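User: quick one
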Amino acid sequence: MTTHGVQSVAEMASGLESVVLDLYSKSKGEQVGLTKDQFVVILKNISQKYLPATATQQDISDLYFSLRVEELALARACAAGSERAWEVFMLRYREKLYDIGSYIAKESSAARELADSLYADLYGTSSREGQRVSKLASYTGRGSLEGWLRTVMAQEYVNRYRRGRKYVSLDEESEEGAQFASADPEPALTVDSRLEVATDEVLAALPAEDRFILASYYLDGRTLAEIARTLGVHESTISRKVEKLAKSLRKQILAALARTGMSRRQAQEAMEVDVRDLRVNIRSRLTQERDVAAFPDKKAEASAGEGSG
Amino acid sequence: MEQLPKLIRQRLQARTKEDGRHPDPDLLAAFTDHLLGKAERVQVLEHLARCGNCRDIVSLATPDFEAGGAATQVVPGSGWLRGPILRWGGLAASVVVVTVAVTVPRLSRHSSPVSTTPSAQTDSRNNPPQARMDEAADKLSVSAPATYRAAEVDSVAARSKQAKFSDRKKDVSNAKPSRASKVAEGRSVSPAPQVAVPASLPLSAKSADEDQAQLKKEQGDQMQVAASNGVVAVEAKAAPAELEIAPGKAKDAPSRDAQTGLVRNDARALSHRSMAGATSPQFADATSTKNAELATRGRIVPRWTLSSDGTLQRSLDSGRTWVTIPVAGNSVFRALAAVGADIWVGGSGGSLYRSMDAGEQWLQVKPASSGKVLTADIIGVEFTDANHGKLTTADEQIWTTADAGQTWQRN
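Assistant: Done. Structure below.
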């Protein structure tokens, strides 16, 4: 790991110097072969990545303290090629990699393949100017290392799945279920443009979390329990929220149409085109409509998936 | 579930096409770990609301605690106010109720219509206890099924604790009716029994016989502690009140620890108690009355996990929220075993800690064999029962114990 052109511990602002030394001690970087200077470089790069140039010393200090420094030191020492770090990493995470693979892929051979593939990436098979580049070098300690491994593996799985989907048959496509239905658009609905604007306005005014819940439930077909787990709340909270949102959206759209100068009657008529869909079961419609929209936007999806890393 | 107009779905869908930059795996991992600050969390949610791809990733990357929960589940109810004591207390109260019910009519029948004085005296002696017993019986009739439910799920813990609690069972079964009724009433206070646990549990890893001997020595104190617990539970209905009892017990610990070679950190134990005191009201605040009632009946099951940075965490709400349980200053824990209320955690530098009361108090255990002390990182802890356990270290040593950690064999 290079340290050229970066601050050493002595060059840091005095306030941060003690913070960094404290964190270095906590990180046990020395035990896994990570020097103080390497640690300083890592922290500095992380603060540059996540904080604006105008960030105060307090902001930087807060960010540093929020990091999982021990896991960060371990991951970066592995990336730097420390044998001791690899031993520790393997002891702690080898089995977990396969467990995570099983959880994500739900099938043993796919799980093993996924875990092996990630392991190869973590070890660093690709070479840049003759040097091994480990994926662990990108870990920044914002979340747990285990969580990061889960995320990276999920990303790999999603990318593979989407690449694989280009070649699956129509039968397989219908058997796969609605897991990735989110990217398949529904057939266009011809409506008053003012209605579209009003709907967009109402959706945009919703908190991000509410839109996430709506999209997860109605577009992705995720269960209430899955959404609840992702957000760290109880399933019943999500259930109540979905009910409430679905009920209030229509009212809010009518109100937004009224604000554009439409009378209530006109607004209701504008929405009438949509009324019949109120009785349509969302999931069955999504599944049914996916066969009609045969694999649109595959390239865009695949590239989006690859770009998410 | 309410259905959503097609137009709204379509507009939601339209928003998902706005592909741009995606959050890196670190941010997504911090999101799934619920570690992001409010501003960053909203940013990530904003992206997720528009990006089906990242929603898939986040959903797949979110751990399913339910799936792995069984291995680390610990059943509550091993606290002395919850388990055998209440069962025996309930039984004692029932016996007293029946006795009083049979005795009182007989006394009334035998009392002479002429000499009213003895009858009046009898009434004055018997009626108040009967009234209390009726009240206790009412409460017990409600709480008894819950007690048996706790007994069913807590069978392992109950078996291992049975011997240790035998003296206390006697205390309660011999207890006066008024005390039994107070204990029964204490069940209506959900957090109190949980916090009261450390005050009266044995503090070191000892055999049942040793515990009994120790308990006999402490019997006087125990009675006072138990009685005051009962009173506090009834009158104050607040968990922190029991915390005042703790220091008295802490004084007893070092002498016992010196005998067994176990080290106990009093300051830490006190901090645990203060934490228990701090979390208990939160628990009470955060949950509804219904949940508190469920907790009282032993349905809420603490779960244990080790975070990837080596801290012990406990969840009292089936994995929804996790609270870090401080065990030892700088130790990083890598292995966890739970047998009933017995929790063992092991980690860096041979650090091994045991809690016999579901995480309220911790004792450091220092395995040594043939003069050699275990100093390697512990990466595996397995306990098949309260006594038999195995440690695996990072350098592939295996240490076993057959007496709850008092002596160890290195293989």
